[in-house]
Specification:
Oligomer: heterodimer
Radius of gyration of chain B: 35 Å
CATH superfamily of the largest domain in chain B: ABC transporter type 1, transmembrane domain
CATH superfamily of the largest domain in chain A: ABC transporter type 1, transmembrane domain
Largest sheet of chain B: 6 strands, mixed
Strand order of the largest sheet of chain A: 6-7-8-3-9-10
Helix content of chain B: 55-70%
CATH architecture of the largest domain in chain A: Up-down Bundle
Structural class of chain A: alpha/beta
Strand content of chain A: 5-15%
Distance between the termini of chain A: 56 Å
Radius of gyration of chain A: 35 Å
Number of strands of chain B: 10
Shape of chain A: elongated
Shape of chain B: elongated
Bound molecules: adenosine-5'-triphosphate, magnesium ion
CATH class of the largest domain in chain B: Mainly Alpha
């Protein structure tokens, strides 16, 4: 259960499931459960598969018959029989080809449908995972799970799955035929193949582990590539290209050697089938001769048997090849299923979920404690009540736990101890839809999507019209800024918003939150990169706009605290002071007095 | 607008991309194009690739004509064979060995029948030597054949993975070499797809290659024997080949566009996934999981439909190739029967030719598997090539920077820069910072401060004017020289998924004491010491396990540990509380840091450090002087930096606000 990509020490249950614990058959069963399309019409497809593989037997026989009874007919070539037989054979060939086409086409359809569903479910589930679980796997690796890991499965489903069933069927049929000819020789053949069948399990285990490593390495490789691509500016300005390349090369080499290793196992286990076949051929002849001495068997039977053995060997080889190639697909499948099997423990209470009444929210933190997985407690015994409609500023040193409080208030995480109550309801009991509707957080690290400003702002309110957006911008005092942009609302913001200035990115995030029209707005350093004049202007606008709502603002610039109804001071994970600015400033020697003194010293 | 320089239509040049010796890539950097206009909208690889194919010969010339995909596909395979000739030879030999021994198997059965089985049944006895011979022959052949299989499969695998690795290294080298503008136009998810799925697609046909090549010999021998047996029947039988070629043309023709689309959709899917996971927190906080899923599902469904269409074509192609030789056999029989009756052929020859035709069917199928992979390979290869052929790496000179300890002299002369050619951002920016002095850069949001900083650290080059460090134009400095003298703390801290130490040193050879000293100046020593693993603590992707302010301080320490001669701080303390900032500033002043300092800041304490303040507005430096001077002479400046106090006094001057 190790997700080697996990960087933060994380306790079990919060780590993304690697899926490596599932057995192959288990994986397939779960896979089919998540992609019900795979089962649709499987019966007909199987019939077609049998028809198509019958063709492989029927066609040579038909040709043989045409030759023997037509061309080499005892009384000289028989033209009409030959032509008739050729036509029948041609019809058989066409029929089996059509069966084969239909089967493959149906398999493609079913598996692509199933996989699209699987991909989408997995994608959705990633978003449903708790924030902390999401963070245990790097983005590159997560991306590989819903893209290339899924791609691996398709080949197997089309060219493997059913053919394997058919091959097993063929092996059974061939066995019956062999037993009919001579049960002793049939036994010999099975004995010769026994080592192969017995070692298959061992090889499957090896292969399974080897391909699991391959898929993991793909994830690691993508992570190694994506990190410096995202951080290109740092890589370039510190000229650490060669170090970065060395890390990428390492991941590429690791993937290469894992793949080669897996391929080695595949080639070796596949070649075993051939050796068994040689053994079986020799065994049939030798035992056949020996049985012949006892008059148990005729030369004709032995020779016929030697031919029948090939009917057995063919599908066995096919089956082993499918099994070995399947391990790659199954390894990919496991990783996708692994996502779905990771519990989304911030579960939406669902239909029983309570709905927050609209209107300003009142907040209560009751004995809240929090520790990041595997880390020390960062919040302790927080008891805090914020009346509806208040504007509260949260201040404190860097790393004191302010953002953690913000994440708990907005239920990005659940507290380790105690409870967060909004309007007297434990947030764990509030329906997600209602919670997200009423409570909006503008996080410290803003993120914009590679699209226009308008599209980004609409993340706050899906059907907002351009005019609505402009009106909200005006309310926030951002109308001039928006009008001043060359393409206005249609300005492309670039990847992660990087074609905007840092301050502008925050303005978009703020606008987005404002448009969402929340009852509780939590701003975590939402204007930290905005110039002071604009920040003050926004601050005053927010003051106006926040009437009738509750707001919690985290800021290092204490100007925010000065104008808040109330200030909450966090220090080392505890609330050490609270009250209006004017009062707290007067508490000599207090944390707040210290913070404020240095703020004043710095800003004047 | 386009960073792709088409390769001239000559194969030698194309090959040089692939013999990707990194030095050669560097040698091909073209000077003087780094300051071209930048498009805001991003360009997908496909658009780029479209142009590449139109302009550059080898892949483009015959595009759209039937048959071109096969030829291009073989050209791609040719690249890999030239690159890995030995492994290719080995795996092909393995395949030939396998083929030969498959024939030998039949021979051994025949031999054993004639010399062992039949005599044994006739005589009622057999020498144990004969039995041993039978066993040895069968086992020997089987074991040798197994060797052939291992050589072929493992060889093909080794070759495939080696080609993948070469290409991935070349592609990622490009990622690191290409300029910021290029990166801004190419979404991360797409680059991931180029490095993964496209590379995989490009070298996909290597797996069936040795088998196909190995069976060509089998096919040639069989065809030769057919002609020896009966020329006319052989010709009839060989009619299969033009039909096979037609089938292949049809297949390539119909599936190529689908494969192209599928690879593009894979890239787009990866783009959406990467972006969406990157912004997972925003998605969560706004409850937009449903919309994001719909966005992803739409692409996934498009990919699904294209794959199903391509799959149907593939589903028709494989059985067609399998059926054709069999149908050929029937035609040979039909024609043969009349020839035998007419006395033109001998019945035995008819049998021989039809048997040989069935022998040929196996090579045809294995070549069919190869052909089946080609369209996707060509598409993947093109997409990869478009990255490899992208141009616009920064040209570097050979200049060196002085390696002294003292501050560097910075001089900015008439610099102009525009992100968008229609919207000039910086115009005629000129200033000078003497060694050891501090300049503060102050300007409203979006006034161009970060852009100026990125010019100073040469993430981009100016459209006009120049920037001199100790009198040398930045463009004349050798690669890696500038970062030896200049360190920047970016506005948004970026941390790697590495340890604290790794993040601070970034591979620079410094002692732990120096790391701690830098952390101390950045006021990061306290929380780092509290981490259980200290300097060895891993920070998670982008430093997730730290608070915003903590990340900024690590980023600051990263710059400080280098003891730069010019330190550029781009609003580097925005997420740090006032007290800590005060201590950081004090640390910068003490500690013998006599570096030249350029700081972007709003807080007066930071600005107060500066010997000179530059007020950036409307793309120009509108005023300069000490903080005290500007407060008096530049009302807009005063309004900008005094905003907090004005609130403090409760007297926000409305007029000044309008001015700003
Ligand atoms: N994902 C995480 N995993 C482990 N530890 C974390 C994680 N996020 C934060 N921490 C730790 O928890 C503590 C509180 O972090 P938090 O982000 O709440 O601080 P903050 O008060 O918001 O600081 P800042 O003002 O710098 O933003 C810090 O010591 C930080 O290192
Ligand atoms: N890559 C880019 N492509 C197009 N436009 C850009 C790009 N980067 C910045 N801009 C635009 O250039 C202008 C200046 O941006 P810049 O980041 O230099 O501002 P800034 O002064 O640093 O602002 P802030 O104080 O918000 O950080 C902004 O209008 C921004 O939208
Ligand atoms: Mg924070
Ligand atoms: Mg900036």
């Amino acid at each position: 259960m190790s997700t080697t990509t996990s960087a933060t020490p994380a306790t079990s249950g919060t780590v993304l499931d690697s899926g490596e614990d599932f057995k192959a058959i288990d994986t397939i069963r779960r896979g089919v459960r998540f992609s019900p399309e795979l089962k649709e019409g499987i019966g007909l497809t199987l019939v077609l598969a049998v028809l198509a593989s019958l063709g492989q037997v029927v066609v040579p026989i038909a040709v043989q018959q045409t030759l023997d009874r037509g061309l080499n007919a005892p009384g000289g070539p028989d033209t009409s029989f030959t032509l008739a037989a050729a036509l029948v054979a041609a019809a058989a060939i066409v029929l089996t080809s059509v069966a084969s086409y239909l089967m493959t086409a149906r398999l493609f359809t079913a598996s692509e449908r199933g996989l699209a569903t699987l991909r989408t479910k997995a994608f959705r589930h990633v978003h449903d995972l708790p924030l902390l679980t999401q963070n245990t796997e790097r983005r590159g690796a997560l991306v590989s799970r819903v893209t290339s890991d899924v791609d691996q499965v398709s080949q197997f489903l089309v060219f493997g799955g059913l053919l394997f069933v058919v091959s097993v069927g063929q092996v059974l049929v061939a066995t019956v035929v062999m037993v009919v000819y001579s049960w002793q020789l049939a036994l010999v053949v099975w004995l010769c193949f026994a080592p192969l069948f017995l070692s298959l399990r061992y090889f499957q285990r090896k292969l399974s582990a080897a391909y699991a490593t391959v898929r993991r390495q793909v994830g690691l490789m993508l992570s190694a590539v994506s990190e410096p691509v995202v951080g290109a500016a740092v890589v370039k300005s510190y000229a650490v290209e060669s170090r970065t390349q060395a890390r990428i090369d390492e991941a590429v080499a690791a993937h290469q050697s894992a793949s080669t290793r897996a391929q080695g196992f595949t080639a070796f286990s596949f070649s075993l089938g051939g050796v068994s076949a040689g053994l079986a051929n020799a065994g049939v002849l030798i035992v056949g001769i020996w049985l012949g001495f006892g008059d148990d068997i005729s030369a004709g039977t032995v020779l016929a048997f030697a031919y029948i053995v090939t009917l057995f060997v063919g599908p066995v080889q096919m089956g082993t090849q499918i099994l070995t190639d399947a391990q790659n697909a199954i390894a990919g499948w496991r990783r996708v299923i692994g996502i779905l099997e990771t519990p989304a423990d911030l579960v939406d209470p669902g239909p029983e979920g309570r709905v927050l009444p609209r209107g300003p929210v009142d907040i209560r933190l009751a004995g809240v404690g929090f520790a990041y997985p595997g880390g020390p407690p960062v919040l302790r015994d927080i008891d805090l009540e914020i009346a509806a409609g208040r504007r509260v500023a949260v201040v404190g040193e860097t790393g004191s736990g302010k953002s953690t409080i913000a994440k708990l208030l907005t239920r990005l995480m659940d507290p380790s101890e105690g409870a967060v109550l909004l309007d007297g309801i434990d947030v764990r009991d509030i329906a997600q839809a209602s919670l997200r509707r009423s409570v909006v957080l503008v996080p410290q690290e803003g993120f914009l999507f590679d699209d226009t400003i308008a599209a980004n702002v609409r993340y706050g309110l899906l059907d907002a019209t351009d005019d609505q957006i402009r009106a909200s911008a005006d309310e926030l005092g951002l109308g001039d800024w928006l009008a001043g942009l060359p393409a206005g609302l249609e300005t492309m913001v670039g990847q992660r918003g990087e074609s905007l200035s840092a301050g502008e990115r925050q303005l978009v995030a703020l606008l987005r939150a404002h448009l969402a029209d929340p009852d509780l707005l939590v701003l975590d350093e939402a204007t930290s990169a905005v110039d002071p004049a604009l920040e003050m202007r926004i601050g005053r606008a927010l003051e106006r706009l926040m009437s009738g709502r509750t707001s919690v603002t985290i800021a290092h610039r204490l100007s925010t605290a000065e104008s808040a109804d109330e200030v909450v001071v966090v220090d080392h994970g505890r609330v050490v002071q609270r009250g209006p600015h004017a009062v707290l400033v007067g508490e000599a020697g207090s944390v707040y007095a210290g913070l404020h003194a240095s703020w004043v010293a710095q800003s004047s | 607008m386009l960073w792709v320089i088409a390769t001239p239509d000559n194969a030698g040049n194309r090959r040089s991309t692939w013999d990707s010796d990194p030095h050669r890539l560097t040698a091909r950097r073209r000077p003087g194009i780094a300051s071209g206009p930048r498009a805001v909208a991003r360009e997908t690889t496909d658009e780029v690739q479209e142009r590449v194919t139109q302009r550059s010969g080898p892949w483009g010339r015959k595009r759209g004509l039937s048959g071109s995909t096969t030829r291009q596909g073989f050209a791609v395979l040719g690249v890999s064979i030239r690159r890995e000739p030995w492994i290719f030879t080995l795996s092909t030999l393995g395949s030939v060995l396998f083929g030969a021994l498959t024939v030998a198997d039949a021979w051994v059965l025949g031999w054993s029948t004639d010399n062992v089985v039949l005599p044994a049944f006739e005589d009622g006895e057999i020498g144990s030597g004969m039995l041993v011979a039978v066993l040895a022959l069968f086992l020997g052949v089987a074991i040798l054949r197994a060797v052939g299989i291992v050589a072929r499969r493992l060889g093909a695998g080794v070759m495939q993975y080696r080609m993948q690795a070469h290409t991935r290294r070349a592609v990622t080298r490009q990622y690191l070499a290409l300029p910021m503008e290029w990166h801004q136009r190419h979404p991360t998810g797409q680059l991931l797809s180029n490095a993964n799925s496209d590379v995989e697609a490009a070298w996909g046909p290597i797996a069936p290659l040795p088998m196909a090549v190995g069976t060509v010999a089998m096919m040639a021998i069989a065809v030769g024997q057919m002609f020896l047996a009966d020329v006319v029947l052989a010709l009839v039988g060989l009619l299969v080949f033009p039909v096979v070629i037609l089938a292949n043309l049809a297949y390539q023709h119909y599936s190529s566009p689908l494969m192209t689309r599928a690879q593009q959709l894979r890239a787009e899917l990866s783009e959406i996934a990467h972006e969406s996971f990157d912004g997972a927190m925003v998605v969560k906080t706004l409850g937009r999981e449903g919309e994001e899923t719909r966005r992803f599902a739409a692409k996934a469904e498009e990919l699904r439909d294209v794959n199903i269409r391509a799959g149907r074509i593939r589903a028709a192609f494989d059985p067609t190739l399998a059926a054709l030789p069999n149908l050929g056999v029937l035609v040979v029989l039909a024609v043969g029967v009349s020839r035998v009756l007419g006395g033109a052929s001998d019945a035995g020859d008819v049998v021989t030719v039809s048997y040989l035709l069935t022998v040929v069917s196996f090579p045809i199928r294995s070549i069919g598997w190869l052909l089946g992979e080609l369209p996707r390979s060509v598409v993947g290869f093109r997409r990869v090539t478009s990255v490899l052929e992208a141009r616009g790496e920064m040209p570097y000179g050979a200049g060196r920077v002085a390696s002294g300890r003292g501050g560097a002299a910075l001089r900015v002369e008439g610099v102009a820069y525009a992100h968008d050619p229609d919207q000039p951002l910086l115009r005629d920016v000129a200033f000078e910072v003497p060694p050891g002095r501090t300049v503060a850069l102050v300007g409203a949001t979006a006034s161009g401060k970060t852009t100026l900083v990125s010019l100073l650290t040469r993430l981009v080059d100016p459209d006009d004017g120049r920037i001199l460090l100790d009198g040398t134009d930045l463009r004349d400095l050798a690669h890696g020289e500038l970062p030896r003298a200049v360190a920047v703390v970016p506005q948004t801290a970026f941390l790697f998924d590495d340890t604290v130490r790794g993040n601070v040193t970034l591979g620079l050879d410094v002692s732990d004491e120096e790391v701690w000293a830098a952390l101390r100046t950045a006021q990061a020593d306290g929380f780092v010491a509290a981490l259980p693993a200290g300097l060895d603590a891993r920070l998670g992707e982008r430093g997730t396990s730290l608070s915003g302010g903590q990340r900024q301080r690590i980023s600051l320490a990263r710059a400080l540990v280098r003891r730069p001669r010019l330190l550029v701080l781009d609003d580097a303390t925005s997420a740090v509380d006032p007290e800590v900032e005060a201590r950081i500033l004090a640390g910068l002043r003490e500690g013998g840091h006599d570096a030249t300092l350029v700081v972007v800041a709003y807080r007066k304490a930071t600005i107060g450090l500066a010997d000179e303040v530059l007020h950036l507005s409307g793309g120009r430096i509108v005023s300069r002087g000490t903080h005290a001077e500007l407060l008096v002479t530049d009302p807009a400046y005063a309004h900008l930096v005094n905003a907090y106090e004005q609130q403090h006094d409760g007297t926000a001057p409305v007029s000044a606000e309008v001015q700003a």
